[in-house]
Amino acid sequence: KACLAAEGKVGLMMNVRRVDLEAVVGVLPALQTPTVSALADEEWVDVNSIVEESVVRSIVPKLKMAGARGIVEYAINKIID
Question: Alpha-carbon distance 9 to 20, whole Å?
Fold first, then answer.
């Protein structure tokens, strides 16, 4: 079941200035809510989210416009709920 749940989904992680966080999170069609982690520079956070692979191409430009930087897409093997 975990492998089936991951089918068609990818992970996105990116760096975001805290002042842009709300705008970036508003673009993400997250599986639940994105994970937001502090970075060494207190003005920046890391945002990590699971999204449908089919939407990545359309949301990456929107994420960049909202303030996301260093966007990385990665494969998901399993989602264990």
Answer: 25
